[in-house]
Amino acid sequence: MIVGPMLKLSFACGGYDRMEAIKYGIVTPENIEIDFKEINSPREIFDGMIGHQAFDLSELSSSEFITRSLRSEFPFVGIPVFPSRAFRHGFIFLNRNSNIKKPKDLEGKLIGVPQHSQTAAVWIRGHLQHQFGVDLSKLRWLEGSVEKAGEHAKVLTTAAMVPPLLETNTTGKSLSDLLATGEIDAILGSRRPESLDKSENVTRLFPNYRLIEREFYERTGIHPIMHVIAIRRKIFEKHPWIASSLFQAFEASKNWALERLKISASQHTMLPFMYADLEEMENLFGGDPWPYGINANRPTLEALVQHLQEQDFISEVVPIEDLFIAIH
After folding, report:
1. Which residues pair with 12 in a beta bridge?
2. pLDDT tens-digit readout, 174-211
3. Which of 72, 168, 184, 250 is deepest in the core (most CB within 10 A)?
């Protein structure tokens, strides 16, 4: 039992269902008062946290967290709580006139990416390399915001130690518009370009992405992690007990959301086939598609570290335990 005054901590995170019990005070971390700041733009959170430590804890890009932690002294520590994860095979978009019929056809093409170090981009490049034999050294990149002209990030992000063929978008157009007009051949990353719905020229590389993603998970046990929870190092060093307190609360909040999702008397979401999806989730993930902790996520975390090393963001593969605070 923790003795002492309540510690008030600001926490920036998206308004995810697994965080609602924390947000509304249904679940409270022992001896911690959470000032929940809902920000549904991950990049805004990352820019504030990395740029000037705007929050006591927040979700943070997994690739940025791992890369910065291993390169130099980093003012944050991480706990193995993963508020954002997503399969990414469905996030590769093409211009129909680019003559890309299969993944290998991406070689030599100009591909838009919001940020080369973006976790979603790291995962997708890993898929392309390991599943489809794409030579990443033959890909050309244009970096910039997907839905508006200019940059995606407001702070300097980590770059590969061996620079890729990377240019900055200075056209005055968004990557989405460039894809629709054929000025770039493809886009990959964390979001659907608006031109997918607006232009007949834009399509997916994998129209059957759900089947591909399911097969990928069944074969590998990997459910790609996008974000981790980072805590300001100075706060953790002064109050090391907060890591376990927060972990337990985040776990309880996620479990509360899972149970709420399963209520069948009255459907809480506007997803007509939700109960069929829930049955699939039970069968595929054993009831918990969103596990926290290291052991339950070892295949996923080890794959992410491997991709970061292969893509020259870090110099060597390290044990996963080195990346997170041990939870007792």
Report:
1. 37, 58
2. 999 999 999 999 999 999 999 999 999 999 999 999 99
3. 184
Q: What pTM value is reported for the model?
A: 0.96
Neighbouring residues of 263: CB distance < 8 A, sequence distance ≥ 6 = none
CB 109 within 8 Å of CB 117: no
> In this structure, are residues 243 and 127 in contact, taking their beta carbons and an 8 Å threshold?
no
Calpha distance 280→61 (Å, rounded): 28
Residues in the chain: 328
The residue among 19, 10, 8, 114 whose CA lies nearest residue 52 is 10
Tokens 């193995």 sit at which residue? Answer: 80
Taking a C-beta distance cutoff of 8 angstroms, is the pair 53, 77 a contact? no
* 189 contact partners, CB below 8 Å, separation of at least 6: 91, 112, 113, 114, 115, 118, 120, 121, 124, 146
Coil, strand or helix at 192: coil
Using only the alpha carbons of the chain, give its radius of gyration.
20
Kindly list the distances between the CA atom of residue 179 and the CA atoms of 100, 112, 116, 124, 144, in Å, as whole numbers in the listed order. Answer: 13, 8, 17, 18, 12
Whether the CB-CB separation of 293 and 116 falls below 8 Å is answered with no
Burial 261-274 (b: 16+ CB within 10 A, else e): beeeeeeeeeeeeb
Kindly report, residue by residue over 260-296, the tens digit of the pLDDT. Answer: 999 988 888 899 999 999 999 999 999 899 999 999 9
- Could you tell me the two tokens for 36? 């929940």
